[in-house]
Amino acid sequence: MTSPCSRCWLRALLSPPAQTLSSSALTTRVARLIRAATRTLAVLAIAAPALLHASTPSAAGASDPSDAGATPRQPSFALYYGNDPPVELLSAYDAAVVEPDSGFNPLAHRLPHTTWFAYASVGEVLPSRSYYADLPKAWLTGHNESWASRVVDQSQPGWPAFYVDHVIKPLWDKGYRGFFLDTLDSWQLVAKTDDDRARQQAGLAAVIHAIKASYPDAKLIFNRGFEILPQVHDLAYAVAFESLYRGWDQAQQRYVEVPEADRAWLLGQAKTIREQYHLPVISIDYCLPADRACARDTVTRIRALGIVPYVTDGALSTMGVGVLEPLRRRILVIQDPPARTDLNVSPGVRFLAMPLNYLGYRIDYRDAREPLPQGDLRNRYAGIVLWLNNDVPRAKDYRTWLAAQIDAGPPVAVFTSFGAQLDPALAEKLDLQIVHGQPANGRLDVESYDAKLMGFEMKPRPDPHDFTAVRVGSQSRSLLRLRSGDFVIDGAALTPWGGYAMRPFGIYDLGAVNQARWVMQPIAFLQAALRLPPDMPVPDTTTENGRRLLMSHIDGDGFASRAEFSDGGHINTDAMPQYSGDVLYRLLRNSGIPTTVSLIEGEVSDDGPYKAFAPHLRTIGKRIFELPNVEVATHTYTHPLQWMRVTGLGVSDTRDVQTEGGSQTSSNGLSINIPGYRFNIDREIKGSIDYLDRQVAPTTKPVRVVLWSGDCQVPSPVLKAAYDAGVLNMNGGDTLITKNYPSWTAIAPLGVMKDGYYQVFAPNQNEELYTALWQGPFYGFSRVLETFAMTDQPIRFKPMDIYYHMFSGTRYASVKALQQIFDTVQRQSVTPVFASEYARKVLDFLDVSIARDGDRWVVRDGANLRTVRLPVGKVPDLASATGVAGYLPGPGGTYVHLMEGEAHFAVIDQANARRMPYLADANGVIDHFVRSRNGFSFDLHSRIMPQFRLANAGACRVTRRPLATDAHQLHVDVACDT
Q1: pLDDT digit string, tens, across residues 223-260
Q2: For residue 777, is the peptide bond before it cis, meaning its omega torsion is within 30 degrees of 0?
Q3: What's the helix, strand, coil split of the chain in %, to 5?
Q4: Torsions phi, psi for 294 (to 5 deg)
Q5: CA of 211: how far to CAs of 155, 171, 179, 207, in Å?
Q6: Do domains 6-152+174-193+217-326 and 538-840 have the same CATH topology?
Q7: Alpha-carbon span 868 to 840, nearest angstrom
Q8: Strand order in the sheet with 149-152
Q9: Got the DSSP string for 90-157?
Q10: How far is Cα of residue 547 from the mean position of the Cα atoms in its chain?
Q11: Pairing of strands 238-242, 254-257
Q12: What is the spatial distance between Cα 282 and Cα 85, in angstroms, rounded to a whole number?
């Protein structure tokens, strides 16, 4: 008998014509066509209200199938088949299905609470799939002419092993730990008799058994496959189907309501799956992407039945809505930096990224001279920022694009210029009036400005020769009005679509001193113009458990340099002379500060220029690396100075240039000359890692980090080499704010994404920039204490990072400066970490999901970033919170201490907080935090002697015991009188 829904299979198809789709998208379309076109099941007429008991969604995942009679705990679920999956949104879900041919790398996004599922077609194959060529053609038993796919004969004895080896294994090796098995009923296109159907079902079950036999930990979601559930239900994580309430009609290119009879049939299947097999059931429904009301209503209706909902678009290429709807945390920045400029030094990175990072947002950069992103950008971005110094080429196309964004509704903030001359129609759309004429007598004066948003680091200084002649309309609010007689314009404003600040009222360039100042208050303006939620818990990389992070790292430059003084009496001239590493060894040993130490292979290798004493340098390096407070890093093989030049990806300038430490580099752009060596990315990164692991590092402490050399403007292929080598990376950025440069423009962001690979910036700059490029004064690095103070008050922008070079160990003044810095920071309330731990927090910042669940917030992270910041005066309601150990008011807000992975909490005024004991601060990582009726307990792991403080604990008894022989690890029990 034909199911009543057989006529609606086309509704589940994707909208673009087949010939325009990628192979991955085409596979998805084929799978969905067959599922819809071939069902031969009877309608089960049952009453929906009596079908299921609704259960509360949980992050715990599917229930144990052996728990007979239990209501399954519901995993949250999402699908995204487009390119560049938005991890910070998908990470809100327990199961996230992506198209593996999209280029997504699950190993770069390992999350404790989200399983990455790869889409995998079982019943059919497209010729474009990589394994098609190896598939015996005799196993292909049918065609799907509409989508150019081939149906696979499931009864072939060799098919299960082939599928595991050629489909599942490559995906497992890429890092996928779940598989969304589609086209589980494609066999119905070719099976015409009962015997044929029985063989196909048996073969399909054999495939699933083979997957679990080879990968017992793999999670499998079946998309339909109802007929084989009696044989394989115990191997399933969940079962999905499509279109319970809303479907997609491919033939008419529209979204449709699902007929009641079709829904009843699906609910019958759901009842069987829930009651007999105790598995979660997922319904994938479809609404127009712009119609969020449709999506939310459909989610509510599905969820009320105890079924896991996910509502997306017909192409599964935009972010849909599930149990939770995470907040968009991406900002699109369109800019036009000078040609062949590394992204690191572009205006969008130098000026916009830091305030946006502080507000909790990550950034995608696009060059305005390239094709601009199309589609509904609201689906991915919280807002768009334009920083355009010049008119954009193809002005007509650009105006059309800008007008489309204004119509679509994502908030837009514009800096410097609008990127094109405004025509009357576009000006009207922007609620602007084009002002004709010129300033009278060559003057342009400030008539008024909003003191909360303008005049931040310097007052507005109009330029009568450089202005944008527009005035806001009645729906906008001027932030800066300029006048010259009857000539009246607005240099900055908030508008219905966002806001703008024209040149020079965003950043003012002080060219004579090579500095800049913010005229506009960037954080307040961006929050207002982009309408960013002021109450969002902000992922914070500066603090852990209430204490500011402290780290230190050393670039390897100068390790072969001799110390110019004696720090231990005198240098024994009969032995090897004292080198910088000798001095720094004692400094590191005595301070105990966790420090990431790097060496340049070329300096310590017998193949380098210092081979006469290279063995001695390696001995010093071994002693340093053996210190318990030292982490091992590489500073590359030959210390490239200008990465864009040596890789051939930048300006081909072969002139000699000044290097770190004051020496000269050769025309090949490398600081260390190795005879016969030609630059090679893998040799610089993986090669230097392998060398240090073999020759210098202890066997238990391999290289964890690559610290970028030279200008640190590393192109994406170089970043990829670090990712491929399995190490973290850091350096770059120019945080140099001091009393001589008192501007937020001198505070760098967290880093920058380049073609999918993230460069983590150092929190602040090294001693070179405080010592006039190592020309002196050599005690100048002590001024980094100004930087530490100015990035902490009144707003904490950065952790503290004592970042210097090996050559700082050669001068008495520089060593004394280091000792002064060490002594000062160790008197402060800090949580010491290694550079790798900080880098992991930065990478977690990119992937954190933040969602509302009624009046509560849900925060899910990668277990490394464990702090969110709330507005001043706000605190988490600990009485109902989970995954929260405590909080501490600090610079710029309240720092909330999260546990590993996931937290749920409501936010209340601090004055209304219930008086109950909690962790106020600690100087390490908190694990296994458990709150009981009369107290709580936790484990504390610190890099130094552990410390913690409790709040509201006057009626409590505190006991502690060491977790191991390591004195830096404690278990703490807090028992309180109720």
Answers
A1: 999 999 999 999 999 999 999 999 988 667 889 999 99
A2: yes
A3: 30, 25, 45
A4: -60, -45
A5: 16, 12, 10, 6
A6: yes
A7: 15
A8: 124-125, 149-152, 140-144
A9: HTTSSEEEE-GGG---GGGG--SS-EEEEEEESSEE-TTSTTGGGS-GGGEEEEETTTTEEEE-TT-T
A10: 23
A11: unpaired
A12: 21
- In the chain, the largest separation of any two C-alpha atoms, in whole Å, equals 98
- Tokens found for residue 898: 């999260």
Residue 245, exposed/middle/buried by CB under 10 A (0-12, 13-18, 19+)? buried
Domain 6-152+174-193+217-326 classified CATH 3.40.1000? no
The identity of residue 741, as a single letter, is: Y
Assigned architecture for domain 330-529: 3-Layer(aba) Sandwich (3.40)
Read off the amino acid at residue 321: V
Helix (H) or strand (E) run with residue 722 in it: helix 716-724
Q: Please state which of the four CATH numbers 3.20.20.370, 3.40.720.10, 3.30.420.40, 3.30.1330.40 is assigned to the domain occupying 538-840.
A: 3.20.20.370
The DSSP code sequence of 175-221 is: T--EEEEE-TTGGGGT--SHHHHHHHHHHHHHHHHHHHHH-TT-EEE
Supply 128's token pair.
Answer: 């474009």
Q: What are the backbone dihedrals phi and psi of residue 905, each rounded to the nearest 5 degrees, phi first?
A: -160, 150
Q: Whole-model pTM?
A: 0.89
- Residue among 759, 894, 801, 791 at smallest CA distance from 363: 759
Domain segments of the chain as ranges: 6-152+174-193+217-326, 330-529, 538-840, 849-976
Question: What whole-number distance in Å separates Cα of residue 257 and Cα of residue 117?
Answer: 29
Contact (CB, 8 A) for 759 and 722: no
Q: Which residues pair with 321 in a beta bridge?
A: 311
Reported as a pLDDT band with limits 50, 70 and 90, residue 427 is: very high
Strands 705-707 and 867-870: unpaired
CA distances from 37 to 51, 186, 321, 675 (A): 26, 9, 27, 68
Give the closest residue to 327 by CA, choosing from 644, 89, 498.
89
CB 882 within 8 A of CB 913: no
User: Does the pLDDT at position 70 exceed 90?
Assistant: no
- The rounded Cα 352 to chain-centroid distance in angstroms is 17
Angle at 961 between CA 955 and CA 966, to 5 degrees: 140
pLDDT tens for each residue of 86-133? 999 999 999 999 999 988 999 989 898 999 999 999 988 888 888 888
Nearest partner of 598 among 547, 651, 550, 637, judged by Cα = 637
Rounded Cα–Cα distance for residues 640 and 681 (Å): 10
Structure token pair of residue 718: 């170089």
Give the Cα separation of 692 and 686 in Å (integer).
Answer: 10
Instruction: Round the CA-based radius of gyration of the chain to a whole number and report it.
Output: 31
Residue whose token pair is 């202005």? 467
- If pLDDT is split at 50, 70 and 90, which confidence band does 72 have? low
Q: Which amino acid is at 423?
A: D
